[in-house]
User: What shape does this take?
Amino acid sequence: MTVAIWVLFTVLLVVWSGVVGIAVAVTRWAAQTLEDSASGKDLPASMSELPAWLTVWIPEDVLPGLQALLHGAAQLIESSLPWVGAAVGWLVPLIWIGWFLVALALLLVAVFCHVMVKRSRVSRHAMAA
Assistant: This one.
């Protein structure tokens, strides 16, 4: 049972790390796009151009809708560009802090479950004797 607890912990941690890694990559892409638009490039047009690594994972029928959504969001962001540019600089460290907190919570739950399984085995052996 303890092996199952630690295997589940490892799988959840790997999945969580993958999700956070993707979030960091998308955040960096957005920051680069905002930086490019500050130098004169059209923000709505550049936000509609998703990175090649991301378009591989998005179904073809969803891609036009997502690009339209990003284009509309970029038009809204364009008016508050200085504020958003400063906020994006803080997002990557905040994402990693969030990763750490969730990873720590997963570890604490796994340790708690491990201890409870060990205690139940000890008490079961004590009752049998």
The CA atoms of residues 77 and 84 lie 7 Å apart. The first helix runs from residue 2 to 38. DSSP finds five helices and no strands in the chain.
